[in-house]
Design a protein that fits this description.
binds glyceraldehyde-3-phosphate; alpha/beta; 8-stranded parallel β-barrel; binds zinc ion; about 290 residues
Length: about 290
């Protein structure tokens, strides 16, 4: 169960890795990396990613990899922004959901997140629900511009405490200086704020750090030390896939066999994922 691993992350000071995928080769790379390093892992599909691979396909492919490798691979519905989308993922058998109503005013966010928690738990008492509070800028891609974070974007610890009590979420994604994607500027993480939010939400609610691409090894280690239990990586996997694919197409212009063209991309993604799992300290944690 995810809950048991989450409990261990805070007791033993490491983090679970969460990696996004939208097609089966990225999922294969993630599963193989987790298997090689004996790491429990989450894989996630945003609404767009899930649309590409298919809802049933995502659930059943993850099940197949879980069976093949015999390791815990949990499927998360990442940044689901409507109740209908949340409901579809719950009904399809996802293990975890990020009910992301962070774009709404506080009270509305509470209302929609609570509704998601109640529905999801009534269908599957073991499901893990994450809420999001604060404003996270950026998108999971390479961004040429500087992304400036304003102090009003950041999650306030006292609001975080109220949010988790009123919604009943298991996990919270705060805005603590993190950015989705890779921007021209490095993220400037407020570790003190992570610690204050962790205190405010209590030991039974776990914190998730989004926007892991472009962060340094020391950022990750300090974030885990401050109270982060899970870290999301997407852009760096997308970049590894695309860069390797471009290189392969250039080097083998005559090649037409898809699995031959895609193999270097799988290897490149696997390398990124293994690197992150080592930094997160999730190696040999099965
Ligand atoms: O939910 C997805 C993540 O927060 C990914 O962020 O693209 O910056 O790695 P990233
Ligand atoms: Zn995210």
């Amino acid at each position: 169960m995810i809950k048991n691993y989450l409990k261990r992350t805070t007791e033993e000071k490491w983090a679970l890795g969460h990696f996004n995928f939208s097609e089966d080769d990225a999922l294969r790379a993630i599963a193989q990396a987790a298997f090689n390093l004996k790491a429990p892992i989450l894989v996630g599909t945003s609404e767009g990613e899930r649309k590409h691979i298919g809802l049933k396909q995502a659930v059943n492919l993850v099940k197949a990899f879980r069976e093949e490798f015999g390791i815990p691979i949990f499927l998360n519905a990442d940044h689901h922004k409507s109740f209908d989308a949340v409901k579809e993922a719950v009904d399809a058998g996802y293990d975890a959901i990020l009910a992301d109503f962070s774009a709404l005013p506080f009270e509305e966010n509470v209302k929609m997140t609570k509704q998601s928690v109640e529905y999801a738990k009534s269908k599957n008492p073991d499901i893990i629900i994450e809420g999001e509070l604060g404003y996270m800028r950026g998108e999971s891609k390479l961004q040429k511009e500087i992304i400036e974070i304003k102090s009003e974007d950041l999650t306030k610890p006292e609001e975080a405490g109220r949010f988790v009590r009123e919604t009943g979420v298991d996990m919270l994604a705060p805005a603590v200086g993190n950015i989705h994607g890779i921007a021209a500027n490095a993220p400037n993480i407020d570790f003190q704020r992570i610690g204050d939010i962790k205190k405010a939400v209590g030991s039974e609610v776990y914190l998730v750090l989004h926007g892991g691409s472009g962060m340094s090894e020391s950022d990750f280690k300090n974030a885990i030390e401050a109270g982060i239990s899970m870290i999301h990586i997407n852009t760096e996997i997308r970049v590894a896939f695309t860069e390797a694919l471009r290189k392969t197409l250039e080097e083998m212009p005559e090649e037409t066999t898809p699995y031959k063209i895609l193999t270097p991309s799988i290897e490149a993604m696997k390398k990124v994922i293994e690197e992150k799992l080592r930094i997160f300290g999730s190696v040999s944690k099965l």
